[in-house]
Amino acid sequence: MNLRIISSAFFALVLTSLSWASDISEEAKTSKEKSDARLKSAIMSQNIPLEKRVKALKELYHDRTVNGRIHRHFCIWDPLGKLGPIASTVQDQTVRSVHYGLDASITIFNNEQELIENFKKEKTCDAILVRGALAREFNKFAGTIEAIGALPERKHLQLLMQVFTNPRLNRYMTDGEYTVMGFATIGGNYAFMRDKAYNSLSALEGKQVAVQTIEAPMTALVKQYGGTPIEGGMMRNVLAYTDGRVSSMISTAIAYLVMGSGQSGDSTGVLRNPLSQSTMQLIGRAEQFPDELAQLLREDFLLKFNNYAGRVDTEMNLVPDEFWIETPADETNKLEDATREVRLTMRENGYYDGTMLRIARKIRCRFNPEKAECVDPVE
């Protein structure tokens, strides 16, 4: 037989074999892709019982588990340490996380900035729990939840949490290498006053006001009212306020606990209406927390919203009634206009996320449709 014919037949057989093997490989690959797609769809569907969704999650990511669980290390901030309210809440949450196939270990930081730097450089934390103002660095959409004046009351924040868990918003949750896995209320950001006679921000004209360095919108608001913002960290601001070196301090409600149950003098008080909502947000590395796991965690935050809020209320009940300062109606209206101007400015310079501001405006209009902003929206 001609050698050329034999060679041609041989190579034809080899190529046919390779093609056949390739077809099997492609078929197997396609089968796995279909299976993974089916599992992902099941996990993201809120119409399927949670137990089945968790089972699908474990099946989808079985290669990431050890003894049936996904091990992850969480780092959290609590200015009061291991015995603080945030730390206590997270400790309880780790028990619930087992239900989702998570085996969570925890490290608690007193210094929030140290925690942030560790997360970005050391890579020892798979996820962090920090205030929303700092979470903005990792996801502007979620960080804008704390936009000044955007969510006046807790009911607005709770409705936003429901919107937040809609799988259709999943694309907003991951920004580069980080993903947002939920948030919880820790009260509001308030204006603490050295004198109860100061019943609105208008009283701060010409006065020094302690503002946290990470809160650029608050700095802008103080300037808008003619005050002089003095920027610093929470602990530094608390000391400046209790020592009487500033006339006011704008800070989260946690500052009251840091002060030692508000021992800052009988003449001091805090404006009852918050300037913004204050949250703790769970930010994880996207490679460690795939979309499906992050979705289930966000839903769990919603499920526990009232529980977290109840813990905040327990702490806030420590604030005596006489500590609160009521603001006149005309000043409240003035504040709404002032905070809107700040939000628009911060949106234009890229600090706030426009989509989140629009969602927040729709939520406000859900409760107060007669407002002018609902008829002629600018957000």
From TrEMBL:
Transmembrane segments: none
Keywords: Signal
Nucleotide-binding recorded as keyword: no
Signal peptide per UniProt: 1-21
Domain of life of the native organism: Bacteria
InterPro entries, alphabetized: AdeT1/2, TRAP_DctP_sf
Pfam families according to UniProt: AdeT1_2
Name of the protein described by the UniProt record: TRAP-type C4-dicarboxylate transport system, substrate-binding protein
